[in-house]
Amino acid sequence: MSHYYDKFGVKITREAWRELFQNFNYRIVGKDEATGVSTVWLGLDHRYDETVGHPLIFETLCQGEVLTDEMMRYSTLEQAEAGHAEMVRRVRAATPVPRRLLNSVRARGRKR
């Protein structure tokens, strides 16, 4: 049986979920185009076993060049916001600096 929740973890009807899901701004928790990381409210419990843990109703997905298709799911809006920030940080830490930028920084350093 599927269970539906609003952004605050309150159980809602399928009809209420459908209406909220149509609101793009309601669904978006975070989006970082530079890293390809987005975090959204799903509203539908994505646990494999509904008897264990809290409903997983948020998802962070990385669709950039680094950590591609890495995904995390969360139970609360606070977890989702923190998870989004952490995924963005991880992608930025794993992204090599483009050679042209390194050369530019080195050239500026020599002029001083």
Descriptive account of the structure:
With 112 residues, the protein is of the alpha+beta class. It has one domain. 38% of the residues lie in helices and 21% in strands. It contains 4 helices and 6 strands, in the order E-E-H-H-E-E-E-E-H-H. The chain has a 4-stranded antiparallel β-sheet with strand order 3-4-5-6. Strands 1-2 form a two-stranded antiparallel sheet. A hairpin with a 5-residue loop joins strand 1 and strand 2. The protein is elongated. The relative contact order is 0.16.
TL;DR?
The protein is α+β, with helices and mostly antiparallel strands.
Biggest β-sheet description: 4 strands, antiparallel
- Span from first to last CA? 67 Å
Helix and strand composition category: alpha+beta
Our count of helices gives: 4
Order of helices and strands: EEHHEEEEHH
Read across the widest sheet, the strand sequence of neighbours is 3-4-5-6
Q: What oligomeric state do these chains adopt?
A: single chain
Shape: elongated
Number of strands: 6
Unreliable segments of 5+ consecutive residues? none
Q: What portion of the residues fall into strands of 2 or more residues?
A: 15-25%
Helix share bin: 25-40%
Provide mean pLDDT, rounded. 86
Q: In the residues, how many domains can be counted?
A: 1
Radius of gyration: 19 Å
